[in-house]
Every structure is written in structure tokens, then in C-alpha cells.
Design a protein that fits this description.
Elements lengths: L2 H11 L29 H5 L15 E7 L5 E7 L1 H5 L3 E5 L37 E2 L5 E7 L2 H8 L3 E6 L25 E4 L2 H7 L2 E9 L11 E6 L5 E5 L4 H11 L7 E4 L15 H13 L3 E4 L2 H7 L6 E9 L5 E12 L11 H5 L5 E10 L13 H19 L3 H7 L17 H12 L9 E3 L2 E13 L6 E7 L4 E4 L9 H13 L6 E4 L16 H25 L14 E4 L2 E4 L5 E3 H7 L4 E7 L5 H4 L3 E13 L5 E11 L6 H20 L5 E2 L4 E2 L18 E5 L22 H13 L10 H4 L1
Parallel strand pairs: 1-12, 10-11, 14-15, 19-20, 26-29
Antiparallel strand pairs: 1-5, 2-4, 2-6, 3-5, 7-15, 8-13, 9-10, 9-12, 13-14, 16-17, 17-25, 18-19, 18-24, 21-22, 22-23, 25-26, 27-28
Bound molecules: dioxothiomolybdenum(VI) ion.
Length: 769
């Protein structure tokens, strides 16, 4: 994500445009392990409770913390009464801005920025407990540390805060006229203009021009944010933290506590979901370390579900205009997509809302514009498909509206406007087989049977809808170390995070394929800053980043093994290069005459216990030359009750083109998970924000609705599985494409069923009555 422009700017300055392409990866078509539906290697540990999440470590003398949060949006703490809390049973300390350990303001960087120049990933640069100022309703004002969690929470309820209230900016609508351009939109330039879109729109034979709105969303990963902080007698800090980026936490905490980075270790072995909510460092992690420092004991700060709403930002609401102008034959002449979202001055962030309009359809005239409005709230951040998931609601709804105006099948409209090169950058696509995904999906779903107006089953109106999905391929620099042991096992090490996606499983599969070993012989160590620096788990980049670094590390280690094997002896390897060999059966074997040797034999013969190599994947030069995206087409059927307006999803097919699929089972699960999250965004998910007080009024899963089993139909997933010649193993990221386009597919199906066009999410009953 925010990678995008910054990494590319560096790539340009180093002349990436002129670098020759790497030869396509021979493993892009390998099928021994890659592609197989291998079960999660940590599945058993998770379902039997053996897997330990951040809040489940039990260092000796562990104390528990609870936070007190502000009840005003803006102002100053006049007084903070902590005496009652301090006297409560079990309380060790009550920490406020008046007695906090010294901390520097955290370095704020948009989520998932990466690279040497980036030091820290805080969501906000406000000093934590640095002064008496309040910047949002829900900001932490005190931390209570006690022997037990219950004691800490009870004592927190006794802290009494008096405020001097100041006027706050809380209404997105009222402040729209103050909109300004953001620095970037998650790496994309905020403004792009090709041709004269407004005049082309005015002259177009057929046009649609509408405003679409999406609401504020909050993060609700299954595992709420949790940290355990342990300081040792030498002033070193160890954190068990539920994060998407252990090195980001390490850099942030070393900056805040003025520590040499070597003195901070961050461990995130198991993480129960994240979706962008754990991509930044939020105040809870910093406060946990401060609390542990203050009491001189290990401290756990596990946020309650409500505290996650108060301390951890989510997806900003959006207001978008999409205007499309077409010739009578359906050819697009003009695409206009403008988007506005609120953010904060202490951590400005604009999602890539207009990304789909930049890369999806051919048109001579394109106008893209993103703006931001500043409010006094918690910082907003990335949330699965940050930008495209809500941007596609507007664009793909508009495509449906245009198809209706043109009396064209909505799939045909997309076929007519399929671009041959990236519509805004002009770059060739690295791998785009959108039409294959679309045709395969239409056939399997039975799209041809759809009628232009609704069908009926008793009181249920039935309709079908489609929408396209598109999400960029990103690759952050990552370093991986690979060791081959004399017993024929291998160890792959990198600081990567497995937040439930299946990182460990896929990387084991990949290394086994690369090295010619059975998967049982490969171990993957991750989630710890004592390991080589991996990419953050975000922007759907991690699998591709690690596969590339692992490929290079495996190649290095195999070269060393080859030279070790050849050293002083003719043997089977005399005069051959690595590319004359294949890795199989636990060793290297000649492709021509099949002679070779196992790793065990080579290492034993040379009396070596192991041999290892490390490689970094470096900057994503390929992104300079190619427009790289994952694609998909959603097909859905809805049933809308004509009297109550209730919407039920009855069928779903997601058809994807995301390069080579590395694990059939995990990929299908990722796509399904994205679609389910999208169903929530389409039909129910919404943060209720009180514009008078700045308070989130539904901070619990009882009132903040997400889909449950009965809301979700069987979801069929198919994919093209066509490797990208320009990525390692031919893979693309798949973590976020699933949610993209989902709400438009549902809105389009609802229109087909009812004739009602809903341009504001979520599509609740009231909007259909
Ligand atoms: Mo994500 S929103 O890149 O975790």
C-alpha cells in the first residue's frame, strides 16, 4: 500500500525502468507441493488450544492493566482523581500524564509503509500521556495496573476525570467545503487527469452520474488487541504483541522509549486476525510497555472489545461521485471518480478509494480525485481492501447503472471496455486474465439464465448481480534465511506474521517444492524480531514477498551445496550449473542423466552439520514496468422480502484471476473470508458515530453487526490459476481481493430483484421499504 508510490519513487531514482526482466520462475508451473490443498500446519495447535496468542503468555509476576478513556472529543484534562483507584484492592499503580514514565511522541507512518527510511508505524504522532490535551472521544487518559484483570478494570471505573471542553470538528458533512488534497491515497497520487473527462461526459450519448456513500467501520478481529511487556534488569524490552508487523512495533517502541533497537524484541507467534487493525502501533502497545516500566513487573494489557473501538481506528466513511459516459455501443468515453473521506491531523490517512477506476476500464478521458477533511477523532486506518473495497461499491454500481441505461448485459459492458494496457499508467499488465475469470464464472453461475427484471418466489423477490474485483499486487522488501541440515531437514526463518492467513503453511509448501524435500522436513520460524526482517503482513503482499526472498535464499544455499559437492571431486556435478539440476528426492539431480546426490550425502561427506544462506527480495522493480493486479468477478443471487425489506443472499460464486494459486484450500478460505466480510459491509456493518459528542455509540458486537453463519450462503470459489511470468512462483496477493466488489454485486442484485438502486451502505431494510 503506501508502499506504492514511495517504493516506486525510489525504484525510479535507481533506474529500475531500464533493468532487464528476470527470467520467469521455472517453479511457476510446479505441482508437487505448490497448489495442493495442504492443511494448515498450525491447525491442530489452534483447535486444541496449544497455540499461544499474545495474551496467553504467563511470565512470572504478571500484572494486568486496564485503560480509562476520555468521554469528550476535544479539550483539556482539568483534574484527574486517582485516589480511589489507588486504594482499591490489588492496585499497583495508576498512571496518567502526570506521573508517566518519559516517552517521546511515536513516529507516525501510514500502515505498512516499509523500507529503511521508515522508523515506526504508529497510527498517530500525538505524544501518549504527553500532556493534558484530549484529541478524540475515547483517547486513553489513565492506565490502572493491578494483580488481576478484574481488579484493574474495577479500579479503572473509579478514576474520575474533569475536563475543560473545547469545540470539536465532528461532522464530515458540515466540513466538506474544507476538503483538501491528501499527500497520497495509500501510495496513489490523489489527482489524475487524462483528457477532458467532464466535457466528454457532457457530450456522451449515455451517461450516469451519481453520489455513493459508505459508512465508518471499526476493526473487530476475533482476537482483540493484546500486549504483554517485559523489561529486564538491563533495560531491554520484550513485547508479546498482536501485530501485523513485529519490526514496525520494535521500531516504534525503540523510538518512544529512546532505546537502541537491539534492546527491543517483539514476538507475535499467533495472531487472531488483523485485517489492517494491527498494521499500526496504537496507544495500547505503548501504554503496556509504560505500565510495565512503572511497576517494574511484566504487564499485560488486553483490550476489551469496547476498548478496541476507543483506541484502534477503522475505516473512514466515504462520499464518492462516479460518472460514466458511453457511446451507444457501450464504449466508455469518460470515467470520473472523486472521493472524499475524513481523517485526522495527527495521522492523516486516505484510502485508495479510486484505485479501481484507475486500472479497470479503458476510456480516453479519465478524471480521478481524492480529498480529505480533518476531524477531531481517533485516527482512521487501513481495513481489508482499504479503498478498493468501498471504491468498487461506487464504480461497480455505476457500471451496472450504465449497463441498464444502455440496455446491455452488465457482463457485456465490461467485456466491451476491457483495456489492453493500464488505463492511467499506460503500463502493460503483468498478467490479466479477467475475461477468463468472467467467462468461467458466468458459465458456472448460470448467468445466461438471468432475467432483466425480478423473479418471484412467494413474497421473496429474487435478483442476480455481478461486480468486478481488482486489487493491486504489492511486494515489500523481505529477508529470508534458509538452512539445510545434514539430517535432510530444512529451516526457513523470517520475522513474518501469520495472522491466520496460513503464512507458515504456504511458505513450508513453497520451500519444500524449491528444495525438493517432503513438507514434513521443512520447518518455518516466524513472528519474532530476532529473525531476519520480513515484510509486514498487509497490502496482500506477504506471500509474494516471502516467496521471492525464499526463492533467492534457496538458490543461494543450493549453489553453496553444489560447490561443496563439487569441491575436489568430479562426481555427478562436474561441469554442471544449478539450472542443469532439479531439486527432488531430498537433493540435487541432473536433468539430463538423472545422476545426483542428496543433501544428506553431500553434507555428511563434507562433515557439515548444516549450510545456510540469506537473501533479501529488494525493491519491487517489476511494479515500475507493469500494471500488476489481482482480478475477480462476483456473481450473486439475493432474495428480498417485499414486505419487510429483508435481504438474504441465496447464492454466491467468486471467480478469480490471481496468478498461480499456492494452496488451493487456504486460497479458497481467503476468498471466502473476504466475501463474507464484504457481505457484512453491504448489509449490516456500520459504526454509529454521534456527531454531537464524537462518541462511537455501538462499541460491541451486540450492536455492531457482522455476518453470522445464517447470513452466509455456500460460497463457490473458482480461479484461473494462470501464473504471472513476472512474480516468484507466478503468485499474486489474494488477501484483500475477496472483499472488493462484493457490496456492488449485492446492490446490483438488489436492483435486479426490486428495481431499487441503493447508493448508500449498508443496505438495511429501511432503505428498501
Ligand atoms: Mo491490510 S488492510 O493491508 O491488513
Amino acid at each position: 500500500m503506501s508502499t506504492g508510490s514511495r517504493l516506486l519513487a525510489r525504484a525510479v531514482s535507481t533506474g529500475a525502468r531500464f533493468l532487464p526482466d528476470k527470467a520467469p520462475d521455472p517453479l511457476r508451473r510446479a505441482h508437487r507441493h505448490l497448489g495442493k490443498p495442504l492443511d494448515r500446519v498450525d491447525g491442530r495447535a489452534k483447535v486444541t488450544g496449544q497455540a499461544r496468542f499474545s495474551a496467553e503468555f504467563r511470565p512470572k509476576d504478571l500484572a494486568h492493566a486496564a485503560v480509562v478513556t476520555s468521554t469528550i472529543a476535544k479539550g483539556r484534562i482539568r483534574s484527574i482523581g486517582t485516589a480511589a483507584a489507588q486504594q482499591a484492592a490489588g492496585v499497583l499503580a495508576v498512571i496518567t500524564h502526570e506521573n508517566t514514565p518519559t516517552m517521546k511522541p511515536p513516529p507516525a507512518v501510514p500502515p505498512f509503509s516499509s523500507g529503511e527510511q521508515v522508523k515506526g508505524t504508529a497510527a498517530s504522532d500525538l505524544p501518549v500521556f504527553g500532556d493534558a490535551m484530549i484529541h478524540w472521544n475515547g483517547q486513553s487518559v489513565a492506565v490502572v495496573v493491578a494483580e488481576t484483570l478484574e481488579q484493574a478494570e474495577y479500579a479503572a471505573s473509579l478514576v474520575h476525570v474533569e475536563y475543560d471542553v473545547q469545540p470539536a470538528r465532528l461532522s464530515f458533512d458540515a466540513l466538506k467545503s474544507t476538503a483538501s488534497a491528501p499527500y497520497d491515497a495509500l501510495g496513489d497520487p490523489p489527482h489524475v487527469e487524462i483528457g477532458h473527462a467532464e466535457s466528454a461526459l457532457a457530450q456522451a450519448a449515455v451517461a450516469v452520474d451519481h453520489v455513493y456513500r459508505t459508512p465508518r467501520h471499526n476493526h473487530n478481529a476475533m482476537e482483540p488487541h493484546a500486549t504483554i511487556a517485559v523489561w529486564d534488569e538491563h533495560g531491554s524490552l520484550t513485547l508479546y504483541d498482536s501485530t501485523q508487523y513485529v519490526y514496525g512495533v520494535k521500531d516504534t517502541l525503540s523510538a518512544v522509549f529512546s532505546l537502541d533497537p537491539g534492546k527491543v524484541r517483539v514476538i507475535a507467534q499467533y495472531v487472531g486476525g488483523s485485517f489492517g487493525g494491527k498494521g499500526n502501533v496504537w496507544d495500547n502497545t505503548i501504554l503496556c510497555a509504560a505500565a510495565a516500566k512503572a511497576v517494574g513487573r511484566p504487564v499485560q494489557l488486553a483490550l476489551s472489545r469496547e476498548a478496541v473501538f476507543r483506541l484502534v481506528g477503522g475505516r473512514a466513511p466515504s462520499e464518492q461521485r462516479v460518472a460514466l459516459g458511453a457511446a451507444p455501443d457501450g464504449r466508455l468515453r469518460a470515467i470520473i471518480h472523486t472521493a472524499l473521506n475524513p481523517t485526522v491531523e495527527h495521522g492523516p490517512h486516505a484510502d485508495a478509494i479510486t484505485a479501481p477506476a484507475r486500472h479497470s476500464y479503458a476510456a480516453e478521458h479519465i478524471l480521478i480525485d481524492q480529498r480529505i477533511v480533518f476531524l477531531d477523532t481517533l485516527a482512521n486506518t487501513a481495513m481489508r481492501g482499504p479503498g478498493p473495497s468501498v471504491g468498487s461499491f461506487a464504480l461497480e454500481s455505476a457500471m451496472d447503472e450504465l449497463a441498464y441505461e444502455l440496455r446491455l448485459d452488465p457482463l457485456e459492458l465490461r467485456r466491451i471496455n476491457e483495456p489492453t494496457k493500464d488505463p492511467t499508467s499506460g503500463h502493460p499488465f503483468s498478467s490479466r486474465h479477467f475475461m477468463e475469470a468472467f467467462d468461467g464464472g458466468a458459465q458456472q453461475f448460470g448467468w445466461q439464465q438471468r432475467t432483466p427484471c425480478s423473479q418471484r418466489d412467494g413474497q421473496w423477490l429474487i435478483g442476480q448481480g455481478v461486480a468486478a474485483a481488482q486489487y493491486h499486487v504489492v511486494r515489500f522488501p523481505a529477508v529470508v534465511r534458509v538452512r539445510i541440515n545434514a539430517d535432510g531437514t530444512a529451516l526457513v526463518q523470517t520475522s513474518a506474521q501469520d495472522n491466520g492467513m496460513g503464512t507458515a503453511t504456504v511458505q513450508i509448501q513453497h520451500a519444500a517444492e524449491r528444495l525438493g524435500l517432503p513438507v514434513e522436513n521443512v520447518r518455518f520460524e516466524y513472528g519474532d524480531t530476532i529473525l531476519p526482517k520480513s515484510a509486514p503482513a498487509g497490502a496482500s503482499n506477504q506471500a509474494v514477498a516471502l516467496v521471492q526472498a525464499t526463492r533467492d535464499a534457496c538458490e543461494k544455499v543450493q549453489r553453496e551445496i553444489l560447490s561443496l559437492a563439487r569441491n575436489g571431486s568430479g562426481g555427478p556435478f562436474a561441469g554442471v550449473r544449478l539450472d542443469h539440476l532439479e531439486a527432488r528426492d531430498g537433493g540435487l539431480f541432473r536433468i539430463d542423466d538423472k545422476r545426483g546426490e542428496t543433501y544428506v550425502a553431500i553434507l555428511k561427506r563434507r562433515d557439515r552439520a548444516w549450510i545456510e544462506a540469506q537473501a533479501g527480495s529488494g525493491l519491487p522493480f517489476e511494479m515500475m514496468k507493469y500494471s500488476m493486479h489481482s482480478y475477480g468477478m462476483h456473481f450473486c443471487e439475493v432474495r428480498v422480502h417485499e414486505e419487510t425489506g429483508e435481504v438474504r443472499i441465496s447464492r454466491w460464486l467468486g471467480s478469480f484471476d490471481c496468478g498461480r494459486i499456492l494452496n488451493a484450500k487456504l486460497a479458497t478460505s481467503q476468498f471466502r473470508g473476504g466475501i463474507i466480510m464484504g457481505i457484512g459491509a453491504a448489509l449490516m456493518e456500520e459504526t454509529l458515530f454521534d456527531e454531537r459528542s464524537g462518541r462511537i455509540v455501538n462499541p460491541s458486537l451486540a450492536e455492531y453487526h457482522v455476518p453470522v453463519h445464517l447470513d452466509v450462503p455456500d460460497i463457490d470459489i473458482i480461479y484461473t490459476d494462470i501464473p504471472d511470468e513476472h512474480t516468484a512462483a507466478g503468485a499474486h496477493g489474494i488477501g484483500e481481493i475477496g472483499i472488493t466488489g462484493v457490496s456492488a454485486a449485492i446492490a446490483n442484485a438488489v436492483f435486479n430483484a426490486t428495481g431499487k438502486r441503493i447508493r448508500e451502505l449498508p443496505i438495511t431494510l429501511d432503505k428498501l421499504l
